[in-house]
Amino acid sequence: MNPYGPVAIYLCVALAAALLFTFLPGLLGRAKPNPQKQEAYECGVEPTSAVHGRFPVRFYLIAMLFVIFDVEAASFYPWAVQMHALRVFGLVEMIVFVIVLAIGYAYVWKKGGFQWR
Amino acid sequence: MNVPDWIIILIKSAILLLVVVTTFAYAMLAERKVLGWMQLRPGPNRVGPWGLMQPAADAAKLILKEDLTPKTADPLIYRLAPFISLLTAFSVYAIIPFGADASGAWAIGNVNAGILLLMAITSIGVYGISLGGWASGSKYPLLGSVRATAQMISYELGMSLSFIGVLILAGTTSLDGIVNAQVHQWFIVPQILGFLIYIITAVAETNRVPFDLVEAETELVAGFHTEYSGLRFGLFFIAEYVNMLTVSCIATLLFLGGWNAPFGLTMIPGVVWFIVKISFFMFFYMWLRATLPRFRYDRLMAFGWKVLLPLATLNLVVTAIIVALKG
């Protein structure tokens, strides 16, 4: 059997279990809603302003940096697995790559990209 | 009698899932017991002998509780989020081998892209937390979830880079192959820096103390799951503990030699060693929780980006140089 066959079967079982857990509270839980219960929690006072509001732009910056560095991490993987075969050639290739990366990293650091304000 | 392969795998999958859920239940009880002892109190001891029925009582209570949805919430995504968390937490076990003979009895699937698939599945887990907090339509969950998302993606970098040293030494991404490469020496010895980075990022990825900024009670009520009640809250809880178990399994497979016995004690089966090593990591988590205070958020982010990321890169460069020159 293809090695991914068992994985697919397991994923179906996991999906079934997760669906069961998701629909169980609707079937077994009691339901006595009232307006107070359905308010969003805000330490007991009535919610004051729009809730899908703004949040600091810092988080967007972190997300963008993550995409860049995660792609970089992913490109290390195939190289790492072949390291025993590539030897010094692979080492030089990788060091050039890391130097390019380090320049970008130093630039972001200097610009304050990692500084949480 | 001739039973088709897929029925056997189906039964194995169901058993494995049952084992994972039961382990979650008793890991939770164990954590409360251990925390109790560390704080010089007995811990839960009322339900059943020695408190052993406590998980069942908790489950019954959570299932029968009212399932509340705030009227400002997005009802579909609000219900989808815990489902995503739970499904990704469960899915990882499709490829984790628990003992030697990984293509047969002790694993569901033995795929050659093991670590890549593992990273791919576990990364999806962040959606559960970020969507759950966003869809609650409330302020504290929103703040908790953007914090959680930033924290988890930042530490995921250090985590994926800390694997690379192991990959260089093992020369394969298959989990089975990595464990077999550790027969003579566990990778914790040559990869001690990678191991430390992995442990730190693993604690941050599972949002545990001292990196539990996500649910910092003093600032954010309960973080992303403030609005959740009943079993839906429980699903996030299950996902968190199953993820703890997952990272313990990965640490064992990658750095502690998986099912390889230490000190040549091969008369004890490999699975037992595997369980012993996982238990050690689970205890380590509880120990941390009883010992350490919480990080400050700006320091957390600075630590991830300015310390762990360069250190992990340094670790992989040094490993590559040694392998290239010594071979």
From the structure above, extract its key features.
heterodimer; A: 117 residues; mainly alpha; Methane Monooxygenase Hydroxylase, Chain G, domain 1; 3 helices; flat; B: 327 residues; globular
Tell me what the structure shows.
The complex is a heterodimer of chains A (117) and B (327). With 117 residues, chain A is mainly alpha-helical. Chain A has one domain: Methane Monooxygenase Hydroxylase, Chain G, domain 1. Helices cover 66% and strands 0% of the residues of chain A. Chain A has helices at 4-28, 58-81, 83-110. In chain A, helix 2 runs antiparallel to helix 3. The longest helix of chain A has 28 residues, at 83-110. Chain A is flat. Chain B is an all-alpha fold. Helices cover 67% and strands 0% of the residues of chain B. Chain B has eleven helices and no strands. Chain B has helices at residues 5-38, 54-64, 75-91, 114-135, 139-170, 175-180, 192-205, 217-220, 230-255, 270-291, 297-326. The longest helix of chain B is centred in the first third of the chain and has 34 residues, at 5-38. Chain B is globular and about 60 Å long. The termini of chain B are far apart. In chain B, 54% of the residues are buried. The mean pLDDT of chain B is 85. Chains A and B meet through helix 1, helix 2 and helix 3 of A and helix 1, helix 3, helix 4, helix 5 and helix 9 of B.
Task: Write a short abstract of this structure.
With 117 residues, chain A is mainly alpha-helical.
The SS-based structural class of chain A is: mainly alpha
CA distance, first residue to last residue of chain B:
51 Å
Largest sheet of chain A: none
Give the total of beta strands of chain A: 0
Radius of gyration of chain B: 20 Å
Uncertain segments of chain A are none
Helix and strand element order of chain A: HHH
